[in-house]
Amino acid sequence: MLRRTLLSLLLACGALAASDHHPLVTAVDSVGITVSDLDRSVEFYSKVLSFEKVSETELVGPEYEHLEGVFGLRMRIARMRLGDEFIELTEFLAPRGRPAPGDSRANDRWFQHIAIITSNMDRAYKWLRENKVRHASSGPQRLPDWNKNAGGIQAFYFRDPDGHFLEVLAFPPDKGNAKWHQAGNKLFLGIDHTAIVISDTDASLGFYRDVLGLQIVGESENYGSEQEHLNNVFGARLRITSLRAAAGLGVEFLEYLAPRDGRLYPPEENANDLLHWQTKFLGTSVVEAARDLQKSGSRFISTGVVMGSIAVRDPDGHAVQISQQ
Predict the structure, then answer these.
(1) How many of the other CB atoms lie within 10 Å of CB of 294?
(2) Is 91 left (phi over 0), alpha (psi -120 to 50) or beta?
(3) Whose CA is closest to 197, among 126, 270, 280, 107?
């Protein structure tokens, strides 16, 4: 009881301190995903999910080694756009990283996905089936109406060619950003958020809200048959917290209240490993961000500020990069 009280006081102090100065981050720029074959992944995201490749670069040199924490690297990076949002697909030509665990589940702590908005779930599911995507859910699920904050949302989990979890999501008329309800004939519209599995919501709020400056925009507790079959986790009960910066896609916490048997984020994970994701933020002062993150005890991936960017890990090990706006 005393430990919980002290934690609450510390978080409250952190929230008060965060309100006294401007947020460290102003936008979510993109979500980075490590892939094994860039050409194959670009084709998949372009052909199947309607992303557009806007750039491709090949990077090598000590600066990138110090930023990514991988010695002797050579990377190919493709920046892809869907609607107003971006992802970055990275293939490490050297050194090749470790494969992702073949039995990864949606409640493992390294879980991260992007939620791609569709204008029509039936059409989207039919299209994904025609393209032989690998199911992660048993099929599309409609969340029940008794759940005030999530009722009527339709969602389906599937995997990309490297086994990364992805989600297609359809909002009912009374939910979601207004831009997801504009008239048009596009099947895939953009990315609403990236979701990460966490162990403790309060600890994650201490990082993303109290240090980085994101704001809570929604909360719900999801359970029942639909949620179980969406996540493909028997007995799933989730505390879900949605946060946003001033611009860009959102960040969603998935805390599994049950079951609590999800595996921890591997402490030896590196940016070239195939389970690696990285949420990329923009900030007004990377030097200030580095100082505050050091004070908070965050674990750095980069050796410090490198080329106007820093890379750190959140309380559960998820990678976060902040670059000068």
Answers:
(1) 13
(2) beta
(3) 107
What is the full DSSP assignment across 174-191?
TSS-GGGG-----SEEEE
Q: Is the peptide bond before 23 cis (omega within 30 degrees of 0)?
A: no
- Distances 284 to 5, 17, 119, 212 between C-alpha atoms, Å: 34, 18, 35, 11
> What pLDDT score was predicted for residue 20?
53
Q: Does the N-terminal peptide bond of residue 95 adopt cis geometry, omega within 30 degrees of 0?
A: yes
pTM of the model: 0.92
Tokens of 238: 């989730």
What are the chain's domains?
Answer: 1-325 (3.10.180.10)
Judged on CB neighbours under 10 Å (0-12, 13-18, 19+), 241 is buried
What letter represents residue 65's amino acid? E
Nearest C-alpha neighbor of 67 from the set 280, 295, 288, 233: 280
> Model confidence at 233, in pLDDT bands (50, 70, 90)?
very high
Ramachandran angles phi, psi of 266, nearest 5°: -60, 120
